[in-house]
Amino acid sequence: MNKKFKKIVLFLLSVTFMLSMIQVPVQAEETPEYSFLPPFDTWDHVYPRNIYEDEIVKIGPDYISLIVDFVNDREVSTGNSGDIDIVVEYSTDKVNWKVGSKPVKNVQGEKQQVKVTGLKKSTNYYLREVFYFRDAPEVKLVSDTPFKVKTTKTLNPQIKSIKAMKAKVKWIKKKVVPGYWASDGTWMKSVTYPAHWETSWTYKITLKEAIDADYIWVYDTKVSSNRFKYNGKKTFYVTVGHNGKLIGKKYNVYIRGEYKGTKSKKSNTIKKVKVKK
């Protein structure tokens, strides 16, 4: 080799060595960004609320409506709480849970109504609120204490049969209620009830299915209805009374159930129920 060629080889070897000594920095893996704090150990302060009785709006045979209220000291105090979806789960044994409501977005300071569906009538259930984080769907937080509630049988009655029996007619003497001062200082005028005939009879009402009601309303005239305590059975008896001699008269009768102050839809109407002795 000539001297010129040796110099070129040495130069290339030195350049190769220098290049091998240079370290190219490796870019670190980016940490995923959340729109709220990472929902793991740092979220120890986040808990769903327990459900309370005064938040139950309505109970039916196959559903329960309730209020979910996000105003609570134990709620999200940092981060974007709008990234939390809340659902209500139900269970009959506190072991096997199912999602019963559609998810609602957490809105701080607002009450929202949800409806738990897919339930069976006349069954005890446990309800609980559940937090789901949109950026971390594997995270699930549940309320401390499940709320126990029972679905109704059915509030809307359906009549199978009605009999009007044991009718009695009696003469009601004239009655005068004297005037008096009411507790608020108002003078109440005297009232006179004229003498008249009155007929009373007993309805034997048989339902297609017992309903979960506190009271039964019986409608048998255009101007009169009667409210009775309900015994919770398919067949029950109520006694009504109307002015006049009414044995042999026929009435169209329907009923309503009442549960905790809420009246049901009216039942089917049984037409021309005859008043008999």
Properties at a glance:
7% helix, six-stranded antiparallel β-sheet, elongated, mainly beta, 21 strands, 44% strand
Oligomer: single chain
3D shape: elongated
Radius of gyration: 38 Å
Distance between the termini: 140 Å
Number-wise, the strands total: 21
Outline of the structure:
The protein has about 280 residues and is mainly beta. The chain has one helix and 21 strands.
Explain what the structure shows:
The chain is mostly beta strands and 277 residues long. It contains 1 helix and 21 strands. Strands 3, 4, 5, 7, 8 and 9 form a 6-stranded antiparallel sheet that branches. Strands 16, 17, 19, 20 and 21 form a 5-stranded antiparallel sheet that branches. A 3-stranded antiparallel sheet has the order 1-2-6, with no helix packed on it. A hairpin with a 5-residue loop joins strand 12 and strand 13. The longest helix is centred in the N-terminal third of the chain and has 19 residues. It is elongated, with a radius of gyration of 38 Å.
